[in-house]
Fold this sequence. Notes:
Radius of gyration: 16 Å
CATH superfamily of the largest domain: Formyl transferase, N-terminal domain
Mean pLDDT: 97
Amino acid sequence: MKRLGILLSGRGSNFEAIAGNVAAGRLDAEIAVVISNRPEARGLETARALGLKAVCLPSKGMEREAYDRLVVAELKANQVDLVCLAGFMRLLSAYFVRQFPGRILNIHPALLPSFPGLDAQHQALEHGVKVTGCTVHFVDENLDSGPIVAQATVPVLDDDTADSLATRILQQEHRIYSEAIRLVLSGNFRIEGRRVLAR
């Protein structure tokens, strides 16, 4: 069975959705380890409550690659096949990405390439778009720029705030992240240029 490593920095709602799909048999994988860079991350408590291995590796004050070497060592010690970023609020170094080529997924609350980086929902409202959504993509050495595995759209309502929009986007994130993980673990895809195509 394929082994997932989840990286998170906060509440970990996408992690919870993935764990729920694993537990229900909708995702043929196991969660090998949950790692956070923040000791107070609620996702660590959730992982422990679910009986999963939860590890805190505090990043405060550490240089990026030095920290990433610690995380990579922990992932490799747990024989992780696929790394899933679930609200992990750190940019990965080139070193990290090279350790897991084509085996790191991220979810972003916008339709990439629109609105990369932080506060994507706020960016969408400021820009006046009528539709936004979320994107699961492979992680490469640049910010929010790897090949796109899955996307879902969410309409922007006239009375939306960043919070109300984020809540509706999150519902779609919870749905498509596990679908994307299932596809990647199946190996039934190929990458042509930037396009992820089903085999």
